[in-house]
Specification:
heterodimer; A: 771 residues; alpha/beta; Ubiquitin-like (UB roll); Rossmann fold; Dimethylsulfoxide Reductase, domain 2; 7-stranded mixed beta sheet; 6-stranded mixed β-barrel; B: 204 residues; alpha+beta; Glutaredoxin; 2 domains; 4-stranded mixed beta sheet; elongated
């Protein structure tokens, strides 16, 4: 913030006077502030704390709790004002601790506590509770209220993750404001206003927001509690360290809290450039996976048919021998590495150094589900660039599902009229409601859709008004990524000044690529080589191609064709069970380092607990494997692994094959496969609270298509391409474009990937009744 | 019970058309729903949410403030006996006991035949006429137990049908706005857009 106090002689020498600068006095001290700032925000930069419950710096003030009353001197003497609703003014004189103010603050606290159950000893919030703390610091110490308090049923679940205790609630409006103002999911509201005002959902509609966990964090009392943390710890027993969430590539600042060497909670931390303090529920609650029983704790090697526990020295020896023999018999091209986005930058760097030392040419951190790494060489934009741009163009997956906090930031920019969003999508997305223009296209037709939009004078004029940022990612896993590249190129050719926010979703994909875990051979060519028997040793770096690569058949053939598989992973997955050697890697919060978010921002990762069993950080595994192989990669500690080059922004357009989508037969529907927030991702399925939230496999069609097909909603239908078919449950969904079929990716149940082929430009399916 | 009927949807659009923001039409449409079913049904609230572009939770949050919106079926006649100070001093408590005994139900419930719902009410602003009560919001002043018996008999015999309409049909949602003064009916998919006369300017 631009509001540091200036010394008197600086003021004297200053020539240019900032027209927005305001100087006021708080308790006799001069405070520099900005026009429009609130008194409470200005006071927060001084040592004088104004008590508050409803005020939150990231939300609009409402003046609900009245706790922040202060005195402001005026022409008719001092006047009591609510400091969270009163803007600063030049020469304003504010007192925060006069007798009058104290009396008012004590009165408010007595009032708030009148109906509060004071069940602090059994309340999860006790110890970190603003109401408790401020009752001590600013309260009267006793109450005149002797009547019966209000009673409600003790905690009621308002969603699968959040419980509400209405007796504790002080009606500050923080959760309800968050739900409507920040998340855009106003599913909770004040009801029965009057003597029995309470926060409730609609009777049969739970608070099913992807961001519900934030309401628990900002609740100033113990009214909202999160199921995964209830009765797990007392705040004074928690140790904490700041870190960065790697559930997706947004890079939200988090605080890892643990007790007795067990992670118990993640909290959001305010990073002005990234997450503004918010987290999505997936990132907040998947800490449970760290504590999962389902972890690798010791190295395993295959003996006969099964994986048996062994020592690190034995496992490393077997792994090194496998690699050495592969290189000596079939050359360096016969050793491939898949994955790396789960790794910290330092881990990725160590593995890249090892790969370079061995002369490997087959490695890719992506799993054929993203875009070419060329996107990192286009002119780059940050999240703040996007949220302050005049126009944001979305050529991306549904950000609410895949990069939820980026959705919050863009939603904020759009609702506050800073930015106009032009969306190109196959299906209504979370941001469609907030988009200035939302252009639907059938898969493969985005180039035509973009070209038509650029010819629209209204859209072209909007783009000429100021900065344009393109949010670029892979929207559909059932089409060639070249279509997206072509669509981007069309815009970048017409408007060469555009910048790009690449939204490849995997945690540290950008860091892994920058570290060197991407080669000229991408995942698809590596898997193809393996399926043809050219790969002697396939190393899976925290990758589960059997769950993540769109072309399932190719992965099956590749894993069958690869002579040996070495898995470096934290959790048993479908792919690691196929491995010949398993090297257990330390989980998130069990290792330190840095991670790179989608903007290329390098952010800290902290170790909070000791690694489970004998699992080790990935960089250490790479280093020891290098030693076994006699390869000197010059790494003795994690401190040798800090250099990560920022790629040159040398490209203007992406390379894209000159493909075009074939005509769709009118009996067929064009397939869209994309992700939901909760799917079979390993960190979700190993978190009991989240695993139940997946929507499950199914096929979603526009109601008009369903009518035309005469297919039964809620029943199983046959979905087939010319080669294969699967059985899926049919659902009606208005947000699906007519003529297309949407299937969520990687959900429990029938796997749509049976129908996907990496070489298909698009996939057309026929939907038929089973009977 | 149910969503709005087609005829009521047409009225709802007309109501929405009166306001610059669709959600301003929330309360008149809630009256419409109460008129249709005798109470505001859950499905009706969901339907209204769709019509005015808010969530059902917001509809419920607004509706539950108002004592006159009922969320469960009530009898044809709603009997509100005032129990606040003046009426209490003038025998409201006895009146309530008498009503409970006569109807065989407790305050807050409905007679088995669905005719009368008995409720305890706060001040009805007729303190000079205490004790007072309301039948479907029509006053009866200086009531005695005997007069209450007569009232209940008359209601049961259908003698007051002309004077006291059945519960629910009280709203004045039929008022007509001349076309040139209305904003124009807004289709539900357009509810989040600015009405034309605002010309893209934010309403607030």
């Amino acid at each position: 913030m631009s509001t540091t106090e200036s010394t008197p002689d600086q003021v004297e020498t200053e020539v240019v006077v900032d027209p927005n600068a305001v100087s006021l006095t708080i308790n006799g001290k001069t405070v520099a502030a900005r026009k429009g700032e609130l008194i409470i925000a200005a006071a927060d930069r001084t040592s004088d704390f104004i008590p508050r419950f409803c005020y939150h710096p990231r939300m609009k003030p409402v003046g609900m709790c009245r706790q922040c009353l202060v005195e402001v001197e005026g022409p008719r003497g001092p006047m009591m004002v609510v400091s969270c609703m009163t803007p600063v003014a030049e020469g304003q004189v504010v007192h925060t601790a006069t007798e009058q103010v104290k009396k008012a603050q004590e009165g408010i606290l007595e009032l708030l506590l009148a109906n509060h159950p004071l069940d602090c000893p059994v309340c999860d919030k006790g110890g970190e509770c603003p109401l408790q703390d401020q009752a001590f610091s600013h309260g009267p110490g006793e109450s005149r209220y002797v009547e019966e308090k209000r009673h409600y049923e003790k905690p009621i679940p308002i969603s699968d993750l959040v419980f509400l205790d209405r007796e504790r609630c002080i009606l500050c409006d923080r959760c309800t404001r968050f739900a409507s103002e920040v998340a855009g999911d106003p599913l909770i509201s004040f009801t029965h206003r009057g003597n029995n005002t309470q926060v409730l959902t609609f009777p049969d509609e739970p608070f099913a927001s992807y961001f519900s966990g934030n309401t628990v964090q900002i609740c100033p009392v113990g009214a909202l509690t999160a199921k995964p943390y209830r009765f797990k710890a007392r705040p004074w027993d928690l140790e904490e360290t700041q870190s960065t969430c790697t559930s997706c590539s947004v890079g939200c600042a988090t605080v890892i809290q643990s007790s007795r060497d067990q992670v118990l909670r993640f909290q959001g931390h305010d990073n002005d450039e990234v997450n503004w303090g918010w987290l999505c529920d997936r990132g907040r609650f998947n800490f449970e996976s760290i504590n999962s029983e389902n972890r690798f704790t010791t190295p395993l090697v295959r003996e006969n048919a099964s994986l048996v526990p062994t020592s690190w020295s034995k496992a490393l020896e077997v792994a090194a021998r496998t690699i050495r023999m592969a290189v000596s018999s079939k050359g360096a091209n016969s050793v491939a590495i898949l994955g790396g986005a789960r790794l910290a930058n330092e881990d990725a760097r160590a593995w890249a150094l090892l790969a370079n030392n061995l002369g490997l040419t087959m490695h890719d951190a992506q799993l054929d589900d993203g875009l070419s790494t060329e996107v990192f060489h286009l002119p780059q934009a940050t999240i703040n660039d996007a949220t302050s741009a005049t126009t944001v163009i979305l050529l991306s997956p549904d950000l609410k599902e895949e990069l939820p906090v980026l959705y919050l930031r863009l939603r904020d920019a759009a609702t506050k009229n800073r930015t106009r969003i032009i969306e190109f999508t196959t299906k209504a997305s979370g941001l469609t409601r907030y988009a200035w223009k939302s252009v639907n296209y059938e898969p493969g037709a985005q180039v035509a859709a973009v070209a038509a939009a650029l010819n629209d004078s209204e859209i072209a004029n909007q783009m000429r008004k100021g900065n344009v940022v393109i949010v670029l990612g892979r929207a559909n896993l059932a089409e060639s990524s070249d279509f997206t590249a072509q669509a981007y190129n069309a815009i970048a050719t017409a408007f060469p000044a555009v910048t790009v926010l690449p939204v490849l979703r995997r945690g540290n994909i950008r860091g892994a690529v920058a570290a060197g875990l991407a080669s000229e051979n991408n995942a698809r060519s590596i898997l193809t080589a393996a399926s043809e028997g050219h790969i002697e040793c396939l190393i899976l770096l925290g990758a589960d191609p059997l769950s993540d690569v769109p072309d399932l058949d190719l992965v099956r053939r590749a894993l069958a064709g690869a002579q040996n598989v070495i898995a470096v992973d934290t959790f048993p997955t479908a792919s690691t069970l196929r491995a010949d050697v398993v090297l257990p890697a330390a989980a998130y919060a069990e290792r330190g380092g840095t991670t790179t978010n989608l903007e290329g921002r390098i952010l800290p990762l902290s170790q909070k607990i000791t690694a489970r069993g004998t699992s080790r950080p990935d960089w250490m595994i790479a280093t020891e494997l290098a030693e076994q192989l006699g390869a000197d990669i010059g790494v003795e500690s994690i401190n040798d692994l800090t250099a990560i080059e920022v790629p040159a922004q040398a490209l203007q357009v992406l390379s894209a094959a000159g493909i075009s989508a074939p005509e769709r037969n009118s009996y067929d529907l064009r397939l869209v496969v994309s992700r939901k927030m909760y799917d079979n991702a390993v960190s979700t399925v190993t978190s009991p609270s989240l695993a139940q939230l997946s929507i499950g496999a199914g096929i979603y069609l526009n109601p008009r298509d369903i009518e035309r097909l005469g297919a039964p909603v809620g029943k199983d239908v046959k979905v087939s391409t010319s080669l294969k078919s699967v059985i899926l449950t049919l659902h009606a969904d208005e947000s699906v474009l007519k003529g297309t079929a949407w299937v969520p990716f990687n959900q429990p149940g029938t796997d749509i990937r049976e129908l996907l082929n990496a070489n298909d430009l698009i996939v057309d399916v026929r939907v038929e009744n089973l009977s | 019970m149910s969503r709005l009927t087609d005829a009521n949807i047409a009225i709802a659009y007309e109501i929405i058309g009166r306001y610059p923001r669709p959600k301003s039409a929330l309360i008149p449409i809630l009256h419409l729903a109460q008129e249709q079913d005798g109470y505001v049904a859950q499905d009706a609230m969901k339907h209204i949410a769709e019509l005015v572009g808010v969530t059902p939770a917001e509809v419920f949050g607004t509706a539950s403030f108002y004592e006159m919106f009922k969320f469960e079926p009530v009898g044809k006649y709603l009997l509100n006996i005032c129990g606040t100070m003046s009426c209490a001093l003038m025998g409201a408590e006895e009146l309530m006991h008498h009503a409970e005994k006569r109807l065989g139900i407790k305050a807050g419930s409905t007679t088995p035949d669905g005719l009368i719902t008995l409720e305890h009410a706060e001040c009805q602003a007729a303190c000079t006429e205490a004790p007072c009560l309301q039948v479907n919001y029509r006053y009866r002043f200086k009531m005695t137990p005997g007069e209450l018996d007569t009232l209940i008999d008359d209601l049961a015999a259908g003698k007051l049908t002309d004077e006291i309409p059945a519960h629910g049909v009280l709203a004045t949602v039929r008022q007509r706005i001349p076309a040139e003064r209305g904003v124009g009916a807004v289709a539900p998919e357009k509810v989040n857009e600015s009405p034309q006369w605002l010309d893209g300017k934010p309403a607030l």
